[in-house]
Design a protein that fits this description.
Helix content is 25%, strand content 18%. With 621 residues, it is an alpha/beta fold. Helix 9 (324-336) packs parallel to helix 10 (357-369), helix 11 (482-500) crosses helix 12 and helix 14 (562-573) runs antiparallel to helix 15.
Length: 621
């Protein structure tokens, strides 16, 4: 059975090339099976085209107003199942001339083809012979390339229903040609989240856990934009910002002063900085002389923020303790009434003796009953008062997920509260407006970075703001830190986990965070995990999502189907492209290595009733 299936896959994969030729060698191509490109008969108008596309249920979005190469239209698909047979079925529609796969290159940028490809014929071939060769292959001869000898533009013909890449490869392999390759539209938006951001260098704490900007990062995993996660920021309020549009700030409540206005007071922005780490998505206010993508990027730019306000608007009532019942109600209503999937908390009681069963009970209820019984993860900073030893309440509560703070070299900060109940650590800066974590402030002169006014009386600091690169940009807080900044990093990672798989329980999210944390840190291995100072290690978003993705070899939204076999075979045997963004997508049997056993395991699972790939998988190279 396995051998017959392998033969079938080889035959199927040959109909859609996984490479083209350049510089005398095969250049690998991947196929993104969540998209395709197509071209209508030229006699059709946009209205008729839209009607046909709307009638094909599997097509989610078609970018009719923004055609690409040769008038092709990019279409996103609701599923990648039976991708190649779906393309074949579209090719049978009379009004559609061409359908091509959505190709991407090694750098994850689009490598989309149209109808044109280039062929250099041998110098002794006459034009009549060239026309004869093209005619026998149902290819149209276009113009000769000026200045190049016997190099022509050839055009795919809709009557043959063949990929342009396949045609170019066919001509390359003819003995009478010197080279042949498709014409690619290289202007297509790349799949990876490339940042052209003049605040790029000011966000190392984010980079520490997502992978790396402009390379393989957590955002390169498929499916992270399909489920929008609501994160409650239980803090001093959140308002809209050029990096956090009002459309992604959901209704919340002010539990300190009452009412539905959960915006911060004029001189505060702690909650803004927390929300920025979780969900900022770049500015829409283009700075003169700069590219459009400036501002802050977060762990999950697709989250919605639920503002839950538990602080007042002046120095006096900002630090006035709220009753336990009010805090418990804020936690409860965050998920029960305001539909938060995750509760992010960057606050703690500084008194090490304080413990409230009422608040702990509310946290437990959230983790058990939130999200329709799956549970809402409740993330807390461990506290910024290291001595005497002990994680601060409410992070100390049994159902809380507690987060300590580390420096960029992975050593724990001297202020970070720790103890045997610490779950995990995350990168942060120093405390009390001495930090170097960049995030959001209020805009238009409000917030922390608004004037020389010193209002954080517990810091007892005179602060001189300087947020480069162009003077002091008062729309941003460049002095954030403490476990206040570490906790939302973990909340952002938790939101990515639930975006990848919203069926997970809160306890499963906790386990994924713990088991994918990095234990071999920059300076050495954490002994005796969980460790009293580092918990289970430093959070890692890339590893967390990779743990949920084994077997999805072609990175197609987590679905394991025939296209994964089509992808893995040339990778293992023909020098085809490696799985992206990690070769461990092909580690189907969860051993931490990719070998022939993974192929056998995958075939057995799909066709012989074998075991499903381990989920999650916690083996990493």
């Amino acid at each position: 059975m396995i051998l017959s299936v392998l033969l079938l896959i080889v035959l199927v994969s040959s109909s859609f090339a996984q490479h083209y030729y350049g510089n005398g060698q095969q250049i690998p191509l991947q196929i993104d099976s969540t998209k395709l490109v197509l071209k209508f008969d030229s006699s059709f108008g946009p209205i008729n085209e839209e009607g046909i596309l709307n009638s094909i249920n599997r097509i989610l979005t078609a970018y009719i107003e923004d055609p690409v190469n040769d008038g092709f239209i990019i279409c996103s698909l609701s599923t990648s199942n039976n991708y190649f047979s779906f393309i074949d079925s579209l090719r049978q529609i009379n009004t559609i001339d061409f359908v091509e796969p959505f190709y991407i290159g090694f750098d994850s940028s689009g490598m989309l083809v149209g109808t044109a490809f280039y062929v250099a014929f041998d110098s002794e071939l006459s034009y009549a012979t060239i026309k004869s060769i093209c005619s026998s292959n149902n290819v149209t001869v276009g113009n000769k390339i000026a200045g190049l000898y016997n190099v022509y533009v050839l055009y795919n013909n809709p009557i043959i229903n063949q990929s342009t890449v396949d045609l170019a490869n066919l001509f390359y392999e003819m003995p009478v040609t010197r080279y042949a390759h498709p014409e690619f539209d290289v202007r297509i938006e790349p799949l990876s989240y490339n940042l052209y951001d003049f605040y790029h260098d000011y966000q190392p704490h984010t980079k520490k856990v997502i992978g790396s900007f402009n390379n393989a990062s957590v955002w390169d995993f498929a499916g992270l934009t399909e489920n929008i996660i609501n994160v409650a920021v239980i803090d001093d309020g959140v308002t809209s910002h050029e990096d956090l549009p009002a459309s992604r700030i959901l209704p919340g409540k002010d539990f300190a002063l009452g009412g539905s206005d959960a915006t911060p007071g004029p001189y505060f922005a702690h909650g803004m900085s927390v929300a920025g780490i979780i969900g900022a998505s770049h500015t829409t206010d283009v700075i003169t002389g700069q590219l459009a993508s400036t501002g802050m990027i977060s762990l999950n730019p697709n989250t919605n923020i639920v503002p839950i306000k538990i602080y007042g608007d002046t120095d006096f009532d900002y630090y006035t303790p709220m009753p336990d019942s009010a805090i418990a109600e804020a936690i409860y209503l965050s998920w029960y009434e305001y539909n938060a999937d995750i509760l992010s908390n960057s606050w703690a009681y500084t008194n090490p003796s304080f413990y409230s069963d009422v608040i702990a009970d509310a946290i437990m209820e959230a983790t058990l009953m939130g999200r329709n019984g799956l549970g809402s993860p409740v993330i807390f900073g461990s506290g910024n008062t290291r001595k005497p030893i002990g994680v601060r309440f409410p992070a100390l509560a049994p159902a809380s997920f507690s987060v300590g703070a580390t420096q960029l070299d992975d050593y724990i900060w001297g202020y970070s509260s720790y103890g045997p109940t610490l779950d995990i650590v995350a990168p942060s800066g120093n405390t009390c407006l001495r930090g170097d974590v960049w995030s959001l402030d209020q805009m238009s002169g409000n917030g922390l970075n608004n004037s020389t006014l010193v209002h954080f009386t517990n810091c007892n600091l005179g602060v001189t703001w300087d947020c480069p690169p162009s003077g002091n940009d008062r729309d941003y807080n460049c002095k954030f830190g403490g476990t206040s900044a570490a906790a939302p990093i973990v909340s952002g990672v938790a939101s990515l986990i639930l975006a990848k798989d919203p069926t997970l329980t809160a306890q499963q999210v906790y386990e994924i965070l713990r088991n994918t944390a990095v234990k071999d840190l920059d300076w050495g291995t954490i002994p005796d995990t969980p460790n009293v100072e580092y918990g289970y290690g430093r959070v890692d978003a890339f590893r967390a999502i990779l743990s949920l993705s084994r077997g999805d070899v072609n990175n197609s939204r987590g679905m394991i189907d025939i296209s994964d076999l089509v992808f893995i075979l040339p990778y293992m045997f023909e020098g085809g492209p490696a799985p992206f963004p990690s070769i461990l997508l092909a580690d189907v049997d969860c051993t931490g290595e990719v070998d022939i056993q993974d192929l056998v395991y995958l075939v057995a699972f799909m066709f012989d009733g074998g075991a499903a790939p381990p989920y999650p998988c916690y083996e990493f190279q």
